[in-house]
Amino acid sequence: MDKKLRVGWFSFTCCEDSTIIFTELMNTHYKEWFKKIEFVHARILRKDDTAEIKDMDVAFVEGAISSDKQEVKLKKIREKAKKLVAIGACAVLGSPSNQRNFFNRDQMDEIKPILDLFKYKERAMKLSELVTVDENVPGCPMNEQVFLEIMEKYLNA
Amino acid sequence: MHDIDIDFDINLEEISKIEGAASLEIKVRNKKIEDLKFSISEWKRFYNQAIRGKSATAVPQLVARICGTCSNAHLLASIEAVEKGFGVQPSQQTMLLRKLLFYGLIIRDHALHLYVFSLPDLFGKNSILDLDENDPVQKQFLEDTFAVKEVGNQLSIIIGGHSVHAPMPTIGGFLKLPKLEDVKALKPKLLDIRPKILKLIDLFSKDPSDFTLQAPVTYCSLSSSDFSFLEGAIKTSDGVTIQEKDFGKHLDAVIIPYSHARGFKFDGKFVMVGALARLNNDKSNLHLKTSESVKQYLDIFPSHNLFHNNIAQAIEIIHAIDSSYDIIDSLNTIENEPPVKPQLKETIGVGLIEAPRGTLYYKLEINADGTIKRGDIVVPTGQNQIVMERGIYELVEKLLAVNTSKDMIIYEIEKFIRAFDPCMSCAAHFLKVKWK
């Protein structure tokens, strides 16, 4: 049997809509994907050892980056993944999860205690501000066609 | 009995197979819980603040982005709040289509939880990926998983334009209406998945998991004669009936300093919302055909076994199938109704619906120019958070008393949390707290 594609699916700050679309795409693709993909990390599907990020062929990453801790994890994912694909608007553009970046003084004053208490980054960031992104799947939620084309490409690489 | 470590720490940084991120820290010393913190670890996106100043009519599409899985619940609850505020009365056709959209969500979302998150536990598997394709029973459940989800997905797509962040529902109606023939084509598909869910109910009914909270819990849900999730008045297991607009007065926000979300009590009592609460309070309003088909399982409700939330959700899928079928069957035409335009004014609107995980409350204060002055949004998982933490505490105490190993305790906790079907993406964004 051919070697399986080692895939990771990660979510940072977002509503996880693209994760849901991913599970809906499984409705019609699971037979092929389950045969050809090893899900190395995918919290939505399985319990794994989250303390250690493993080597992957492709990491799909959704969500914006809100904290230093998230940045460290993203960089670890980048190190361990041959390809990193930004999934959905928050990962690709930062929006809408970065809406606090555009808040006025009153709105900022109100959320400041929370930002301080939980050590939020000064700004919520899109992935490409912090790591090299190989491919983008835009959309809110992600564009299904673009995702399927990218997945197909890696499965047949 | 076997010996276990009497001192240990549990640190679950990311609880798996739930919607969103939650973490748990437990410190056990001398076989006693010294500290336990269940926290919602999602990073906030501050929707409460972000909607301020935005046009009320644009708010539903923004707040749909609060949650991926139940986005259409946020969409419909916020639309209701804006419509109630402006006095817009949606047409009968609009309400029927909204119900169909919502039943699609119930089928899709409950199926994700039951098949993908919880079912592997019943087969002693880590993941649905590990189901044995050579075992005919497991293979069938794997096929059912995706067949059922797909019908819910298609129902949502045909009615709302998309199963997540549906673009067509709007204030006063639909921007684009579905085609009658597309809607009618769903009938055989709904019938196809019905027996699959009856099998799923039977599977969960054999799950021996049993946990009843020692502390008394008030079950709270929206009740309507057709169990539609979208209309009616709030009913509690204490026999109280509350109008939608007054619901907020009964909720007491509780600050959990280590969590990114706030918890709630209801009139000072522990509260639980969701499918278990709905079945406990309102099983007599289920679709008649549903009641007949699941009669033997309905007898367990009202139930205080929190794992029965799973069976309650599965029964609700049957109800969503039967109710959708009837609505579609009765539709002879879809009239080309343009959305009713609201007359802007200074106002307050409350929208309240039963999201898949429980009561979802929107209170929007609107300025004379139609912009949002302030909004208060209370999500189901926030209401359940206190009972969930309390439940974990009692569960761990019980397991320690019988010398359960640390790994087994972790497994049992995760299974317990999953039974609540919590949605952390929703819960984390409504902290309206002064920390000083």
CATH topology of chain A: Rossmann fold
Superfamily at the CATH H level of chain B?
Cytochrome-c3 Hydrogenase, chain B
Number of strands of chain A: 7
Q: What is the chain-wise order of helices and strands of chain A?
A: EHEEEHEHHEEH
* Count of spatially separate domains of chain B: 1
Give a short synopsis of this structure.
The complex is a heterodimer of chains A (157) and B (436). Chain A has helices at residues 17-36, 68-80, 88-92, 105-117, 144-155; strands at 5-11, 37-42, 56-62, 65-67, 81-87, 120-125, 135-137.
Q: How does this model look, in words?
A:
The complex is a heterodimer of chains A (157) and B (436). Chain A is an alpha/beta fold and 157 residues long. Chain A has one domain (5-45, 52-155): NADH:ubiquinone oxidoreductase-like, 20kDa subunit (Rossmann fold), CATH 3.40.50.700. Helix content of chain A is 40%, strand content 25%. In chain A, strands 2-1-3-5-7 form a five-stranded parallel β-sheet. Chain A has a two-stranded antiparallel sheet with strand order 4-6. The model of chain A has no long low-confidence stretch (mean pLDDT 94). With 436 residues, chain B is an alpha+beta fold. Chain B has a single domain, classed as Cytochrome-c3 Hydrogenase, chain B (Orthogonal Bundle). Helices cover 43% and strands 17% of the residues of chain B. Chain B has a four-stranded mixed β-sheet with strand order 8-7-6-11. A three-stranded antiparallel β-sheet of chain B has the order 1-2-3, covered by helices on one side. In chain B, strands 12-13-14 form a three-stranded antiparallel β-sheet. In chain B, a hairpin with a 4-residue loop joins strand 7 (233-236) and strand 8 (241-242). The radius of gyration of chain B is 22 Å and the shape is globular. Chain B starts with 7 loop residues before the first strand and ends in a 9-residue tail after the last helix. Residues 429-436 of chain B have low confidence and may be disordered.
